[in-house]
Design a protein that fits this description.
This protein has about 160 residues and is α+β, with helices and mostly antiparallel strands. It has 2 helices and 10 strands. It has a single domain, classed as Cyclic phosphodiesterase (Cyclic Phosphodiesterase, Chain: A). This is 2'-5' RNA ligase superfamily protein.
Length: about 160
């Protein structure tokens, strides 16, 4: 079973980069942790279809809030609604692949883009600030259990937004 997530990193991250699960660089969550019996190529195709018509997303840091069932400390991301539109397109495409999300409270009409606050990180001081301008230039697909290891995360695909 493939465990994956879809994100937009705030800084450049290399394809095939690996991280400890709790040390993934700051990113906007486009689709949280999910699982499917579909193969990686099918998931990547769905992600590309949902985001290919979008250019660079420009947004700003918003209010701090606890998000999701686990009440993750996060900063909401304010944009013109394009992130939510692309997310909805992705959810529709992934539905056909039997994708199950870990936290349904963060999906579809309940989706609000956010950046989780890093617990201990030197990465941009571990958070974004209210009003901080963000340019999301690429979308990445993460394998949340490379080689079956749930303590690691690997960037398995990434494509630019033009």
């Amino acid at each position: 079973m493939l465990r994956f997530a879809v994100v937009a990193f705030l800084d450049d991250v290399a394809l095939e980069a690996e991280f400890d699960a709790d040390e993934v660089p700051l990113h906007v969550s486009l689709l949280g942790a999910a699982s499917t019996e579909a193969d990686l190529d099918q998931v990547v195709s769905a992600v590309e279809a949902a985001y290919s018509s979008h250019g660079v997303f420009v947004a700003r840091g918003g209010d701090d809030e606890l998000v999701g069932a686990d009440e993750i400390e996060a900063t909401l991301v304010d944009d013109d609604g394009d992130l939510a539109d692309a997310h909805l397109a992705l959810v529709v495409d992934l539905r056909d692949l039997g994708v199950r999300v870990d936290d349904p409270s963060l999906v579809a009409r309940r989706y609000r883009p956010f950046v989780a606050v890093a617990a201990e990180s030197d990465d941009r001081a571990g958070r974004i600030e209210r009003g901080e301008r963000l340019e999301l230039r690429a979308v990445a697909v993460l394998d949340l259990a490379p080689d079956g290891d749930p303590d690691r995360v690997c960037v398995v695909d990434q494509f630019p937004l033009l």
